[in-house]
Amino acid sequence: MDSRFAVVMHEALHCIRKERMMDEPNPTILVADSDEDSRYLLRSLLELKGFRVLEANNGQEAIDTSVSRRPDLLLIQLKLPVVSGFTAIRRIRKHEELRAVPIIAISFNNPTSNRNLALAAGCNAHIENPVEFDLLDALVDQLLPGDRLPLASVLIQ
Fold it and tell me: Do 103 and 73 touch, CB atoms closer than 8 A?
């Protein structure tokens, strides 16, 4: 009897989530990373959680896409070609309509220095590459509150 109740409850929650998703558009996240495989992996995981995902492979594309599409959150690698991630973040923050958009920086080496520089440039959070998906999941949920399943439960289903 208990397991049946749990299944019914899960189905009820699933229906509630579906209704909310139909009423409200899913948040959009811009993933700016020069590595195509990294972008693909991040995109796949974020889409599993119900996000719409935009991509940029360099800093200038990140700026242009942010200005034209106004994503709800930005995930920016700091070492980007054309325009660095640091510069892209500073330029994005100069746009009034993008000042409140949460930005998570991703860096490869020297995490303490990069973290401080990223926060000074205007980031809300910083994570290291390789990305720990549980940490990314927690940061995204913190910066974009909403009714979404944890990444672990999405991957198990």
Answer: yes
